[in-house]
Amino acid sequence: MEDSRIALPIGTTLDRFIKKKQDEFQYASGELSQLLRDIALAGKVVNREINKAGLINIVGAIGTQNVQGEDQQKLDVLANIRFTRALSKGGEACAVISEEDDEIVDLNNHGRYVIAIDPLDGSSNIDVNVSIGTIFSIFRRVTPVGSPIQEIDVLQKGSEQVAAGYLLYGSSTMLVYTTGHGVNGFTYEPSLGEYFLSHPDMSIPEDGAIYSINEGSFNSFAAPVKNYVNYCKEQKYSGRYIGSLVADFHRNLLKGGIYIYPATDKDKNGKLRLMYECNALAYIIEQAGGVASTGTERILEITPSELHQRVPFFVGSKNMVEEAISGFKK
Ligand code: P6P
What we know:
31% helix, eight-stranded mixed beta sheet, binds 6-O-phosphono-alpha-D-fructofuranose, D-Maltodextrin-Binding Protein, domain 2
């Protein structure tokens, strides 16, 4: 009888998990394996660069701004290069849209998939050693393979995603993704260079007692948002706002809670981007039993009008989001 105290089971690696679940991916599982492998590999490289950030001169702004007018941090640009290069080498992606690129990045007309990505969300937190993340959506192109990429390949509704996920570079680095059959989380073991299944079948509690919103903008919130924030205080919920979407989202997914980035005086349509932030997290949260809305519309039903479109974002526990957006329906 093997002594399990000596030979602990190694656990399920990401690759083995994808192969085990291959019948759940509507297209050839090899294509999904390659895409997730490309993203996971780039995540390992970015993770290493983030962990060294304080030691080598890659921290801080580089003096340029992205299409959002936000100062680009050195690691933003590095992460964008890493993910775009990994996806290009993998051969499955025909195009990438990224927070860091003004236009669609054509990779390979023979690729079948379009990737929408925020390579390093929350990057302003890099300098202060707060958790940051990568968010990605995977769509199947709609135009014939081999033909030039068109905007209709990219501006697809969130409900058309074939997979979505995020990497969280925190106290440990995790990859969390869905292909429409539930949500699974993998923790990266740097000494082995592998991601191991650590959070199978993730689901968000229907209720929670955590609310994440930047209350500094309270005076510019619409009345329903103000009313909900006051409701959270009356319920004695905990305010938890890291200023890093992926970190707040992940904690709320595990414990129950709501994250809100509403319209404000400064950001009339909210700050977060539909294509490479909200869509992916909306797909994940619905697969985990939660809700994602603009306040008046299901996120996954929005037909995008432009690459870097912003939308108000209410995401998290079903009963909390429904309570928060109920004020918009009256
Ligand atoms: P504010 C980071 O820039 C980000 O996109 C999210 O990660 C985060 O939740 C939000 O913006 C923070 O924005 O306006 O509250 O500082």
